[in-house]
Amino acid sequence: MLDDRTRYRKRRYEFGDGVTMQLGRRTLVMGILNATPDSFSDGGRYLGTDAAVAHAVAMVEQGADILDIGGESTRPGAEQIDQMEEERRVIPVIAAIRRELPHVPLSIDTYKAETAKAALEAGAHIINDIWGLKGDPHMASVAAEYGCPVVISHNRHSHQYENLVHDVISDLRSSIGLARAAGVKDEWIWLDPGIGFAKSYEENLELMGRLSDIADMGYPLLLGTSRKKFIQRTLNASPQEVVEGTAATVAVGIMHGCQIVRVHDVAAIKRTVRMVDAIQYR
């Protein structure tokens, strides 16, 4: 049954190109599309525009509500790329998906402000920033200029915490402050607890059990646990063998107030979401 954390975050978004999106009626599934050669579980599979579009169409047919397109791997040890290379990978893909799927909200997964701006111009609707507006000092201004939802993810360079949940909330509040100072309205801010980023195995598990504390901050909460290493370690399995573990984290997340889940295995997780929503959204 819906609790107060979810109830007061019902929001409807209407974008200038006619695309709409509703939060608070059911959990939204965000499908991951990596236009990269080196992502940890599917690097190189969707690097070409045709392959990326075909995968995007397949995910929407499987039930994806949003598509998240990224051009730079965020796995540990991944090679950083410059803005021009990132744009070369993602802008043609975004433009092509926008033509093929004109009613589907698109998200750009980047921490670079100029890439985000180019993606929004090409047809993206949402910015998903793994560095919580702290990786590029101009990112918050781009979000404010375009009046788009921005996913503020928890991340940090230091892995040292005095109190994990308290520190995560403090870091997120700092990012929210950057957004507000740039003119981003509260209704456009989404939060991501940053599972898998700057956290140990034990800290990821602890934070999964405390997601309601993040939801209590009053912003829509996005959860991105799909195929991540803490699930692989728990199940002693490869990234392609942890769909059940991902489904378990998604179920826990929804029951703790998460409204959007970011996943690779859309068909299986969509079924999980429908079951949990039948309990939660009644």
TrEMBL record:
Signal peptide residues are: none
The family database entries (CDD domains) matched by this protein are listed as:
DHPS
Molecular-function annotations in GO: dihydropteroate synthase activity
Under the heading SUPFAM superfamilies, the entry gives:
Dihydropteroate synthetase-like (SSF51717)
EC number(s) recorded for this UniProt protein = 2.5.1.15
Q: Which InterPro entries match?
A: DHP_synth-like, DHP_synth_dom, Dihydropteroate_synth-like_sf, Pterin-binding_dom
Query: Taking every annotated instance into account, which residue ranges of this chain make up the domain Pterin-binding?
Result: 27-274
- A Pfam family found in this protein is Pterin_bind
Keyword Magnesium on entry:
yes
Keywords assigned: Folate biosynthesis, Magnesium, Metal-binding, Transferase
Metabolic or biological pathway, per its Swiss-Prot or TrEMBL entry = Cofactor biosynthesis; tetrahydrofolate biosynthesis; 7,8-dihydrofolate from 2-amino-4-hydroxy-6-hydroxymethyl-7,8-dihydropteridine diphosphate and 4-aminobenzoate: step 1/2
Cofactor (UniProt): Mg(2+)
Listed under catalytic activity are: (7,8-dihydropterin-6-yl)methyl diphosphate + 4-aminobenzoate = 7,8-dihydropteroate + diphosphate
Which family does the entry's similarity section mention?
Answer: Belongs to the DHPS family.
What this chain does, per the record? Catalyzes the condensation of para-aminobenzoate (pABA) with 6-hydroxymethyl-7,8-dihydropterin diphosphate (DHPt-PP) to form 7,8-dihydropteroate (H2Pte), the immediate precursor of folate derivatives.
Name listed for the protein in its UniProt record: Dihydropteroate synthase
Give the organism the record lists. Paenibacillus chungangensis
